Every structure is written in structure tokens, then in C-alpha cells.
Amino acid sequence: MDASTYTLPRIHALLFAAAVLALAAAGIVYPPYSIAVVLAVVLGMFLLFSRPDLAFGLFFAIETLFSEDVLLTTEKLEVTIYRVNLPMIGMNAFELAFVFLILAALIQRQGRIAGTRLDFSVMFFGLAALIGYLTCIRLYGDPLRLFEPRRMLHFFLSYFLAVNLIRTKSSLQAFLSLFFFAVILKSLEGGYLYLLGEGLEIKWRIRAIFTGWEDSLTFVTYLLFLGVIVVGKYDFPFKRIYLIFSPVVFYTFLFSYKRAYYVAMAVGLLLLLGMQGWKAKMRMAAWLLLCGVLMAGLITVMGQWQAIGMRFESILNPTKESSANYRLIEWQNAYISIKRNPIFGIGLGGVMPMEIFLSRTNLLGVHNTYLWAAVKMGILGFFSYVLLHIAFLRRLMRQNGALHDLYLQAVSKGIACSFAAFAAAEMFAPMFAQMRTAAWLGVMMGIGMTLPVMDCKREMANDQIASKSPSTRLP
Known about the structure:
Elements: H1 10-26, H2 33-49, H3 52-65, E1 70-71, E2 76-77, H4 93-108, H5 119-140, H6 147-165, H7 169-195, E3 200-201, E4 207-208, H8 213-231, H9 239-254, H10 260-274, H11 278-302, H12 305-316, H13 323-340, H14 369-400, H15 406-425, H16 437-468
Antiparallel strand pairs: 1-2, 3-4
Helix pairs in contact: 1-2, 2-3, 2-4, 3-4, 3-7, 4-6, 5-14, 6-16, 7-9, 8-9, 8-10, 8-15, 10-15, 13-14, 14-15, 14-16, 15-16
């Protein structure tokens, strides 16, 4: 099937539109109403069509549409559906959806679990996480410190679902289409609210929207995928629609709170530039120049130059009260903690204070995922996590030139650039303590490792066709 001619079946498009309306209604109410909507959409999709791959795509799109903001005045998380357990169940709505999707995946695959070449690295990191949890029980004697283990589990479950459900090109196209449409809808919502004067007032007396790390990550993923498609001249489902809405996504990303993703975006673009030939490099430079001119015009029309300038000023010239200086204090504290607990760390458990040796220590841990892993899980956790990154990126870079299908090539390069941006952003945030970043990592890693399987199936189909009619090949 040619990527340029692929469209979602009409019934799926109608169902997605209905889901969006339901989520829009859920956005203006509070739990348990929003929980009921999420369950109805996800489970309804699965029960009606018995297509767990599409249900998983819709589930991830729903996750993308939800936001969990930080109240900057109190530095406490709002109570959202991620923190509200369902009565008598002990897990929230999204975790319950995970259970149903895993059962569906096992039924569909008749109990056969698919493996990948990344399994050793994933299991090594899983072993480190398990030892970290046991260390927490040993040190604190409380097995119910589950905040961090639950977030960690989201990564492994998402990886399992992506590897076992997204195994065909059509499933991949449907999944990414649902995800990117959700990003567009979220950016439209953010842009609309921002123009109305909504948002949180941050420390420089300017407003920001979508303060969660996961929200900025989805915008960066969208923009980097689009960059791969445009620079590489790939055919891609709904390519024109993505281009039309790209200014809105970029505008929303620009005025989201997490300024670290400016750096992450630059890292992703540098990797994309490095993967191109000279002609493509020149084309990319021209596109970036055009985008810069268009964005400058948009910022001028909206009168937002002061807000943008203050954001960059806070990065380039941090003060003693800035977030950058706060992170330096946390990193020093993390270093002291690692020296005192080098092997197993202080334990992977709930939201607990890291050992406070310096002032102003964040009770959520340390704003650096690599240091966070070392503090919580010791040397074993740190090296297993770094190994996982290196192994995955190495696999992606190797397969980029080996994939025959152009659509799969584009997806592989898009994941590589997005993963590089994520790895850069991890320098400034404890990603596994966030709400959806762990799930995003599991999904992207899972999809990245199944691309060769999809490409192999395509080549096998071509071989079968060629044996009957040598002049006929799939595009």
C-alpha cells in the first residue's frame, strides 16, 4: 500500500471525531466524569471492533490530549485522572486501559510474545528497576511507595504493547495518524486559550501554557517528524494537513512552559541535518530560514517578542533564583547522594525526599533523568539506562539506510530525531517521575524496533508477487 494514497477507513475517522468531541466535553468537567469518558472511548473502541492495535492508537491519542499542569505558585501537582484511582480497583483509568489492552494483545497473538533485538537492554534496565524497588522496601520498610514504580511500569507496558500490536504498516500508519491529529487538536486548544489570555503566570510575569514535560515533547515529536518528511521529500499520509497546521503546533510549543525543549529541538534538528546529503542539507537550511521568517512574522503580529526574549534571557543568563541555578543545586545534591549510596542508590519508591545535603532540594527528586536513575537505582540503574539509550539509537541509525520502504525510512528517521531530542531534554527533568513521558519512550522504542519486521513482510510480499508476475512490485 502506497503511503501517499493511504487513508483511514471512514468509520475509524468518524469514531475518532466522536472521541474528540467526548474528550472536549471531558476537558471542562472533573473526575469521575472524565474518567468515565476515557474508559468509554478506549474500551468501546476495543469491544466494537476487536482491533486492539487501533484501540492502542486511540488510547495514546487520548493520553496526548490530556494535560497535567504544575501549579507554579505552590509547586504541587494538580489532582487529575492520573492521580485518581478508581473505587475498589487501586489503579487509575489509564492503567486499567493498559490491563485491557495487554489482555487483548495476548489473546490476539495467542499467548506468543514478540521479541526484538533490544530485549536484553530493556530487561537489564527492568532488573535494575526491580532491584531499586527492593532497595526501597529494605530501607523504608514500606512496599506501598509505588509512585515511581508505577511510572516505570508504564514504560515497560507501552513497549510491550507497541512491539506486539503495531506490527504492520497499516497499523503503524493508523497509529501515527491518530497521534498527530491529537497533537494538532491539542495545539489548537493551546493557541486558542493563550490568545484569550489564559495560562499560568510564570516567574518573569509572562504567561505560559501546557506546563507539563509530556506536552512539549509531543509538539517536538510532531515538528521533527514533519521536518524529516519535508527535507527527505517523503510521501506520508495527511502530509499536507500536517504542513497546514505546523505553524499552530510551533506557536503552541514556543509558548509552552518547558524552555528546555528549545535545546531539545535544536539537538533533534542537528541530528536530522547530519543524516542528510549536501543537497538535502541546503534544502533543509532553506526550509529553516523560511520557517524562521514565518514565525518571526507570527510573533510580531501577536506582539509576543518580549515574552520570547525573556524566555531566552532566562536560559542564556540564569540568575540565582532561576530554574537553571536550582538544577545546579539539585545536581550537586545528587552527586553527594550518589557518593554515599553508589551501588543500589536510595531506592525506587514513592515521592520521597532525596537525602538533603544542600538547601532547596526538590522533593520530587532531581531534574536530570540520568542522575535520577543513579540516585534512585545506583550504578546499576545508571549504566543500564545509558546502555538502553545507546543500544536503541545505534539500532535506529543502522536501520535507517537498510529499510527498503520509504515510509518506514521516514518513520525511523523521525523516531531517531525525536529520541535524540528526548535524550537532551532528560538532562533537565526526571522523565520517569512525569506522567506520560515514560509511556512515550516505551511506544517510540517499540515502534522503532518493529520497523524491520514490517519491512521484511513487505519484501516477502514482493517476492511472492514477483514469483507470479516479475513486473509487479509493491511500492
